[in-house]
Amino acid sequence: MAILQILHFPDPRLRTIAKPVSVFGDDIQRIVADMFETMYAAPGVGLAATQVNIPKRILVTDTSRDGSDPRCFINPQIIEARGTEQMEEGCLSVPDVFETVERAESVKVQAFDQYGMPFEVELDGLLAVCVQHEIDHLDGKLFVDRLSPLKRSRIRRKFEKAQKQAL
Ligand code: GNR
Ligand code: NI
Q: CA-CA distance, 160 to 4, in Å (whole number)?
């Protein structure tokens, strides 16, 4: 297992649209194991493969806070969405920024597990928000894209400045 490096906004690789997984083999299981290790180490409640520069439609979550609810969604699709909810979100690719985002309150998701087994699940609360946030990553979107243009450009300037100073 390995802890993978997480890309930071505004890295253009975060804009990649991830490709579906078609073969479920050892390489996918290794990616999933590394993603769990990376998410727990961060720590975060979710991680999309795009964030660790793997352009495949894989996401992992654990919203339990004690490591008791690991979930893996491969090729996830939202087949039903209900209600709206505002929640304060953060992102491991946009460190130290927390802003309120509006999303569906509950979602029904169809996906495959890491062994290629299809499943369907209805989610609400933080887990529903988290899965929508991760699916956005797989589509090259970030939660800052859902904020006002003014807020987004302020955040972008802050990160560009920080990156220049790090050189
Ligand atoms: O750790 C995370 N917390 C979080 C809080 C509210 C809504 C979404 C998230 S996901 C985030 C980890 C992350 O960046 N996943 O892509
Ligand atoms: Ni994120």
A: 22
